[in-house]
Amino acid sequence: MTGEGADESTADWAATVERVRDAVRRHSARFEHAIPLIASENLLSPYAKELLVSDFHSRYAEGLPGERYYEGNEQVDEVERICLDLAKRLFRCSFADVRPISGTVANMAVLKALADPGDLVGTCRLADGAHISSAAFGAFGLRGVKPVYYAWDDARMTIDVPRTREILRAVRPKLCLFGLSLFLFPLPVRELAPTLEEVGARGWYDGAHVLGLIAGGEFQDPLHEGCVVLSASTHKTLPGPQHGILLGQTDDAEVTKRLTSGAFPGVTSNHHLHAMAALAVSLAEHLAFGRAYARQVIANARALGQALHERGFDVLAPDLGFTRSHTIAVRVVREGGGEAVAKRLADAGIIANKNLLPGDTSPRHPGGVRLGTPEVTRVGMREKEMAGIAELMDDLLHRGRSPAEVARAAAELKAPFRGVQYCFGAGEAAYRYYDLVGHPPS
Ligand SMILES: *Cc1c(COP(=O)(O)O)cnc(C)c1O
Predict the structure, then answer these.
(1) Domains defined along the chain, listed by start
(2) Mind listing the pLDDT tens digit for each residue in 59-77?
(3) 112 and 163 Cβ atoms separated by less than 8 Å
């Protein structure tokens, strides 16, 4: 196949379609046999997944329920109203907007609504775990706002409150973002709230990673600790579709109006109605099963940290039980550095990512790996399996066992855990390729 359209026959294009399907099927099979430890990934429930291939995918619904720009949206309105009610109920808050199509897009909506170009916005440094949204080459740069960095406490892996108070008083940012992609411990929102008020800054929480833990009542509760808005992805610890959300707790009608127009027309036109419908299902399922899920996710992360620590790995924050979230951070300089270790783990069927850690001197050579338990918990693993994963990593990275051998052992460990749990229709094959058409195209 050359990619030059004019020379290809229909049969060639059919073969191309089949190549794509085949690659996705192989991908699914690979994950079915792997130990997936990416902290930002998760699995959809079968009822949520079904909606992704519904006719909602084919439609537009610009505007809000009841005031759309196009006709034909009555059922979309019905579903979006359910989705909004569930979101407000789950987070006990007064405002929700389910139109941002991802966490980054939700962040862009907040920046558009609550900051102007040139404003100062408080955030953590990338090396301390912040997301690229708050980098000059990300959403901050796009909106033209300037970061003000909080002071960081390496040992406790959270914001240093006294030093950050001084920074806020000296610099007086307009908006203060609390959120991380390497999110081990709750951030001191409650402790800093009086200082924010004193300097006239609004609090904004980016809960992309920890949304499902917040909703499960097992982390912090930023909208009741002093933040006016919570932006997030809906597919990390909240095991929903790839989408975004805005949540707010404020009496200030001007703020909610600005957030609403930030979401649309600010940063979306289409809002991926199929994903919005799947989100409604995921929120209802989280109300039913989310507490038990969030508890086990955290228990598993702490168990994995402990087991790796006992096997000689340099897991961060040992004095604090390694984590209070779904994530642990492991400094792997002795094992060859973040990049080499993440690659070697992947060769052995353990999927994780290299990660910058506090104290790393070069952004291009991350000293650590980030490991997360949302997905392994979603398929039913518990503390015992976390010990098994630590043993596999020890075998691979300390005892010289080959990646191929460890991959076989990883597949064995995974074999009983291929059904999605903590949802309606539990036990449905988590990695199933939904083959709607069957035969190869012709
Ligand atoms: C993942 C993440 C995002 C962005 O999420 P997308 O849904 O992938 O756009 C935003 N903020 C933080 C802190 C994240 O970790």
Answers:
(1) 49-283 (3.40.640.10), 290-414 (3.90.1150.10)
(2) 999 999 999 999 999 999 9
(3) no
